[in-house]
What we know:
The protein is of the alpha+beta class. The chain has a 5-stranded mixed sheet. The model has no long low-confidence stretch (mean pLDDT about 90).
Amino acid sequence: MIIEHHPSIESELKDIINFYNKWSQGLGDEFIEEFNRQISLIALSPQQWVIIEDNIRRSMMRRFPFVIYFREIGGNTLRVTVVKHQRRQPNHGKDRK
């Protein structure tokens, strides 16, 4: 499975990593490891995740209070469109394709 990221994902991840590293050194690295594990789970079976709107699906991270929005493009490509805190800015990134 090919994994693509919306151009804004990189800066969102950097902000999250910096935030967690300010709390505790290395916590940002643990976040990115958890993010990558979650992306691997999504890639194994994309249809198991909840559809929130049109063809956008949602996967909630286990350890950290973040949600990943993604959609399938064709038969073997996933596009991660948003990584955001579960309780902040509910409409953030919903219009991304």
